[in-house]
Design brief:
alpha/beta, Rossmann fold, 369 residues, 2 domains, 13 strands, globular, single chain, seven-stranded parallel sheet
Length: 369
C-alpha cells in the first residue's frame, strides 16, 4: 500500500499537464512507495496526453469562469460537482497531497483539499499567473514558480511559501535521443532541420504564415528540411494546401517525443508559452518566438523576453495582417538559415536560462509535505 498519494489537479492544455508529468516522473524515481493520480479537465487534450501514461486519471466536469448569467450558473454547478468527485478521491486515499497545475479543473480540487486539511501545492510556470492559480493560491502552502519576477504576484498570500525552481520538464529533455526522431520521421541526417510548432493544439496563424513563406524557402532546399507540427484541427488543411517543391516538408498533426525532435532541430519557430520557452532553452536550440497576442496580460511576450534578453531567441509579433506577419517572419528567419555562427551563439545563450533540475527539486520538496 502506498505511503502517500499525490493528486495532480488541473489541465486543459499541454502547458499545464507536461510540467505535472515531469514532476510525477521524478516523484516515482525518488520514492517507489507512492501513488500518483490526475484529476484533469474534460478536454480531449487531457485524455490524449494522459492515456499514454501509466497514471490513473479522472476527468472533472468543471468549466471556466464567465460573468454571463447562464455560464456563471454552469460554472458554480460544475464546480460543486467536481468538488464532490475530488472529495471522494481524496478521502479514499492514503496521506493525500494536492498539486494544482493550473486550468479551471484545478480549483475545485484545491478548494476541497483545503476544507479537508490536506496539503496543497501549486505549479505556476507562466510569468503572469492565470485566474485558476490566483484563486488557488489562497489555499496553498507552497507555490513553485518558473521566474523570480513572478514572486510579487503571490506576495499577498502570506501562508504560501513561493519557490522559484524553474519550469519542470520531462525526463526526455535530460537524456534526448535526436537520432531517434530523425529515423522515425524519415528525415535526412545531412540536412538542417527547421521545426515549426504551435504547441500541443497547434496554431493556425503560424501555419498560415509558414504557407506564405514556403516559396522563399525553396532556395534553401539543398541545406534545410522542415518538420511542421500543425495540431490535429489544422493538419488536413495544411496538408491539402501543400504544393510540390524541392523543399523536404514533413507535416505532422502531433508528435509525442518532443525532447528528441527539439534536440534534433537547428531552428524552432513557435509560440512562447512557459513550457515551450523552457523546452527551447533546455534543448539548446535557437528560436523565433511568436507570442499569442490575445492574452490580456501578454504573458507569452514576457516569457519570450527571457530568451530574447540573453540572445537565445528572436521575437516576431503575430500581427493581424497575414502579409505583414509573414514578411516579418521571413526577415528574421532567412538570416538564421544562412548564418551558422549566429545559430551557434544563440544555442550557447540558451544555457543562461535553462533549468534542467526543476522537476527534481519540486519533487524533493513535495515529498516533505
Amino acid at each position: 500500500m502506498a505511503l502517500k498519494t499525490f493528486f495532480f489537479a488541473g489541465g486543459g492544455t499541454g502547458g499545464h499537464l507536461y510540467p505535472a508529468l515531469a514532476v510525477a516522473e521524478q516523484l516515482t524515481a525518488l520514492e517507489s512507495d507512492i501513488e500518483i493520480r490526475f484529476l484533469c479537465s474534460s478536454r480531449s487534450i487531457d485524455e490524449t496526453i494522459l492515456s499514454k501514461t501509466a497514471y490513473q486519471y479522472a476527468a472533472l466536469s468543471a468549466q471556466g469562469l464567465s460573468l454571463k448569467p447562464a455560464q456563471l450558473l454552469r460554472f458554480f454547478r460544475t464546480f460543486q460537482d467536481s468538488a464532490k468527485v475530488a472529495r471522494a478521491h481524496i478521502e479514499n486515499s492514503i496521506h493525500p497531497v494536492i498539486v494544482g497545475v493550473g486550468g479551471f479543473a484545478s480549483s475545485p480540487v484545491c478548494w476541497t483539499a483545503h476544507r479537508l486539511g490536506v496539503p496543497v501545492a501549486l505549479i505556476n510556470v507562466d510569468s503572469v499567473p492565470g485566474k485558476a492559480n490566483r484563486l488557488n493560491a489562497r489555499w496553498a502552502q507552497t507555490v513553485f514558480i518558473h521566474f523570480e519576477e513572478t514572486q510579487p504576484a503571490f506576495a499577498r498570500f502570506k501562508r504560501a511559501r513561493v519557490l522559484a525552481y524553474g519550469c519542470p520538464l520531462r525526463q526526455g529533455f535530460l537524456d534526448p535521443q535526436p537520432g531517434r526522431a530523425i529515423t522515425e520521421l524519415g528525415l535526412d541526417p545531412n540536412k538542417k532541420i527547421l521545426l515549426i510548432t504551435g504547441a500541443s493544439t497547434g496554431c493556425q496563424s503560424i501555419n498560415d504564415a509558414i504557407a506564405r513563406i514556403l516559396p522563399d524557402m525553396e532556395a534553401y532546399a539543398d541545406l534545410w528540411q522542415v518538420v511542421h507540427l500543425t495540431g490535429h484541427r489544422n493538419y488536413e488543411a495544411v496538408s491539402n494546401a501543400l504544393s510540390q517543391g524541392r523543399l523536404a516538408y514533413h507535416v505532422l498533426a502531433y508528435y509525442d517525443q518532443m525532447p528528441d525532435l527539439m534536440n534534433a532541430a537547428d531552428v524552432i519557430i513557435g509560440r512562447s508559452g512557459a513550457v515551450s520557452v523552457a523546452e527551447y532553452a533546455a534543448s539548446g536550440v535557437p528560436s523565433i518566438c511568436m507570442p499569442y497576442p490575445h492574452h490580456p496580460d501578454k504573458h507569452q511576450y514576457i516569457n519570450a523576453s527571457k530568451l530574447v534578453d540573453v540572445g537565445a531567441a528572436i521575437m516576431v509579433d503575430d500581427l493581424p495582417d497575414l502579409k505583414d506577419r509573414s514578411e516579418w517572419l521571413w526577415e528574421e528567419l532567412e538570416p538564421l538559415l544562412k548564418d551558422e555562427t549566429t545559430r551557434l551563439a544563440m544555442a550557447q545563450a540558451c544555457e543562461q536560462v535553462a533549468r534542467p533540475d526543476a522537476a527534481k527539486k519540486i519533487a524533493e520538496h513535495l515529498l516533505t509535505l
